[in-house]
Structure formats: C-alpha cells, structure tokens
Amino acid sequence: MISYGAITVVNAIPCGIGAAVGIRLTTNADLTAGGTERVVKIINDPNEDTNMARICVKNTFKRFNVSEPDGWKLTVNSQIPVSRGLKSSSSACNAIVSATADNVVRTHGGNGFGIGKDAELEMIRFGVGCAKEAGVTVTGAFDDACACHLGGLVITDNTNDSLLKHDDVEDNDIILLIPEAKIRKPSLDTEAFRAVSGKAKDIIRTAENDWYAALTDNGRLVARVLGIDDGVASVAIRMGALAAGVSGTGPAIAVVVGKGEGMRFARELDFGGYRAMVTRTRGIS
Questions:
Q1: How far apart are CA 238 and CA 240, in angstroms?
Q2: Is-contact 270 235, C-beta < 8 A?
Q3: Do 106 and 177 lie in a common domain?
Q4: Does one domain contain both 140 and 180?
Q5: Which helix (H) or strand (E) holds 26?
Q6: 137 with 6, same domain?
Q7: Which residues contact 179 (CB under 8 A, 6 or more apart)?
Q8: Stronger pLDDT, 251 or 96, i.e. the higher one
C-alpha cells in the first residue's frame, strides 16, 4: 500500500493546531502472513527501529478482531528521509496500517476501514494512535498524517484529532534540503515550543489564506526555538522562492518554487551542507 509525505506549514507543538501540505514522495508497505517469525524489513533505512511498525501491525489485527499470525513479513520502502521533519513516521503508519488492513480483507473478508472521507479519517486517527503508542510523535501528528493521506493543505486540531480545513493546493515544485543530522522526537524541548504559542496562533491565521507566508514564518519560528541555522531559507526567499523554512521539527528545510522551476532553482541555490531532493506538491486526489 502506498502513502505519501508532507511538509509543515504550521508546527502543532506550540498550541496543538497544525497545518501541512502533501508532497509526492512515497512510502510503500506490503504485509504477507506465513512462517513462524514476525519480520520487519525497512529497505530504505535498515538500521531504523521497528517498534512503531510492529505496533501498527499488532493493533490493526486487533482492531478487526483477528488474531495476529504467528509469522508475517512486513516490507517497507520509503523515499522520505527519516527523522528530518518530512513526515516519515506518519507516512509509514498510514502505509503499514493500510497494508495490514488489506491483508485482513484478503484473508478474512470485510471491507477494512471502509470507503469515503469518514473511513479515511478513521484510518488516519487509528495510525496516529499507533504513532503515539510508539513515542515517535509529540502531538500525535494528525496534521501530518492527514496531509500524507489526503493531499492538499490541511489545518487540524491535534488535541482532538479534528480536521478544520482541507483545501487543494497549486502544483508547485518542492526542493527539500536535507542535512546529515537527524532530530529524534524524545530529544525535543517541548516547553520551548509552547512558550511561542502566541506567535504560532498568528501563523495559523495566516495559513488560512496564505500557506506560503505561513510556511516561511513558521520555519523562522521553529529555527529560533531549535537553534537551527536556517539562513539558506532566507537566501531562497531572496532568490524568489514562494516559501522556504524548516519543516516539522527539522532539521530539513523545504523550499517552494513554481512548477518546473525546481531543478534550476536547486542548481542556483548555494545549499552547502545539505543534500537536495526535488519533488512536487500533491493536491487532493
């Protein structure tokens, strides 16, 4: 099953309300039952911890009142760099939960989580619960999971997992600037984020009408809280980028430019110390 990635427009840690935009990087997950071992193979990052994946599988079987098989093999392959603020965990949760539900349907019948928007949101909330149990998210990341699964711009209240706004977005190129370093969620100073909740609320209001400006303002705020050097984002704005800033809790930086401009812009941008990936926004499917 396929899920997608996303970039942050407003970080949800300060006040519980967040916003994100879907992008076209993918995560693929496939679950097959059989044998006597429960094996998780993460192709793109073999050393990554498998606890979240195992929780997703276990809980999904339990959700459908089906006994977890004695043996199964889960294969996950993602284009999304791990622990850089690009929603790798949310995308993986969506893909793994969907793959496990698909296995239940093929083996035991039924219709899984069902079809339609309400069913999609139920699946997303379920995956958020798995991510919380695994400790890979501070807020539950309902905004990230919605953007990954639904595409477009989402604004959500992560305190009660409610979708406040869901709009389509323009077809833009996205340049992701990815440093070697990772930032793990347990290491974050959440109190430092909550101390800027007033400013975050202002950025949320901006996001309702201008997600480009909100992404840039949020990136500056998060960089200040984390002590990250986001100078390359400022350079990108001066060069004509539509938006640029730290995504999630970093340390990756997302740069939004016009459709078809990504490769040229990346060549002209001095992003020493980062690895550049070019992708695109993902609108509502």
A1: 5
A2: yes
A3: no
A4: no
A5: strand 17-33
A6: yes
A7: 84, 251, 252, 273, 274, 275
A8: 96
Rounded to 5°, angle at Cα 271 from 231 and 141: 70
In this structure, what is the dihedral angle of CA atoms 140, 227, 239, 176, given to the nearest 10 degrees?
-40
Q: Does residue 251 have a cis bond before it (omega within 30 degrees)?
A: yes
DSSP secondary structure string, 89-137? Answer: HHHHHHHHHHHHHHHHHHHH-S-TT-SSHHHHHHHHHHHHHHHHHHT--
* pLDDT > 70? residue 186: no
Q: Which of 25, 142, 9, 3 is nearest to 80 (CA)?
A: 25
As a whole number of angstroms, the distance between CA 92 and CA 127 comes to: 9
Segments forming the whole domain that contains residue 82: 2-167
Q: Which residues contact 16 (CB under 8 A, 6 or more apart)?
A: 139, 157, 158, 159
Averaged pLDDT, 147-162: 97
User: In 3-state terms, what secondary structure has residue 77?
Assistant: strand
**How many folded domains does the chain comprise?**
2
What integer pLDDT is reported at residue 28 of this predicted model? 98
Angle CA(86)–CA(90)–CA(94) in degrees, nearest 5? Answer: 135
> Where residue 38 sits, what CATH number does that domain have?
3.30.230.10
pTM value is 0.94
The answer to the question of residue 154 being in a domain is yes
β-pairing, 153-157 vs 17-33, is antiparallel
Of 97 and 187, more confident:
97
DSSP 281: B
Cα–Cα dist 277/150, whole Å: 22
Q: Length of the chain in residues, anyone? A: 285
**Angle CA 194–164–124, to nearest 5:** 90
Coil vs helix vs strand at 208: coil
